[in-house]
Amino acid sequence: MKKLTLLGGMTAAEFLRDYWHKKPLVIRQAIPDFQALLSREELFDLVQRDDVESRLIMQEKRQWKMDNGPFEQVPPVTQKNWTLLVQGVNLVDESVDALMRQFDFVPDARLDDLMISYATETGGVGAHFDSYDVFLLQAHGHRRWRISAQTDLTLVEGMPLKILKNFQSEQEFILAPGDMLYLPPQYAHEGVAMDECMTYSIGFRAPSYQELGEAFLESMIETIDLPGRYADPDLKLPKHKAEISNTMLSRVSAELNKVKFTQEDITLFLGEYLSEPKAHIFFDAPEPLLSSARFIQKAKKNGVRLSLKTQMLHRGNYVFINGTSFEVGEEDLLVLQVLANERILTDVSVASASPDVIEALHTWYKDGWLTL
Ligand code: AKG
């Protein structure tokens, strides 16, 4: 297996075995001579958009202040001590998406997004912890990170952001462009900008079981089928008229216990749930919209690629794309798996696709889920 500069000369398997979820790692020059992919002006333009999530964070005395974007204007860059967080930049910028995909030794179902934080000198978001793993790649300027394996994760109450009450730094590092810090979940950390600074956070998705359970039950509502209605032809005079009888309880239990969930139900739920775009994400239909015949002709010649915002997953014979699922036959599956894994289908694969696949590709093209 290939040794990766990105992981300090380790193979991905070695990193997963020794660090992932286990301990922090500082990688000097993970990306040698790295330069920020977006200028601060390009970032400030992004935060004006309502399809990009952003937050502005400032600390005044011991109070934290946080505003949610979009922002027409941000504070002057000559003003110290403010941070702008721009979430999901990979969804709107190809070069950022390509950078995030370098972390594809972690499966797509776990990769969340790439957030860019811009800070002026002394800016930061306070000492905190995340519930998921994170790679913090320094893109511009310098940031001093202080980190701690502390188990006291008590938060300051009444703050608009999660701030640790008793942060006790154990290690400190200054990161320069191209350096990267990996932190496992729940690891306390605090980053402070030493000059004008941009940090890229590659974050991972770790839904809570509660969240999954609630969403699963909601998704199952329509599949529940319990015919009939409660009846008691053998009703006896009750001893206590307000008491729920054993007979009633066992009859209802027997019916409700008929609700069973199969592995397939869970597969379908998980695929749809994990491929569902976030609420603020919208897809734009292509302009001009090519006719079906023209689309097929071009797709067969040049191939197709998933749009940046599309999440496509697969499991067994199921394919999931942007919150929808469908079952496909062996041959079609081979073609669609390539599209899901490579995010691109070249001319050769499109040419060999069945009419069903071509039709699906055309529908996704019209919906803005893929491009030519
Ligand atoms: C995180 O993503 O957990 C961070 O701490 C990033 C904060 C920053 O870049 O200002």
From TrEMBL:
SMART domains: JmjC. The keyword Iron applies. Keywords: Dioxygenase, Iron, Metal-binding, Oxidoreductase. It comes from the Bacteria. Its cofactor is Fe(2+). It holds the Pfam family WHD_ROXA. PROSITE patterns: JMJC. Residues 95-221 form the JmjC domain. PANTHER family: MINA53 MYC INDUCED NUCLEAR ANTIGEN, RIBOSOMAL OXYGENASE 1. This is JmjC domain-containing protein.
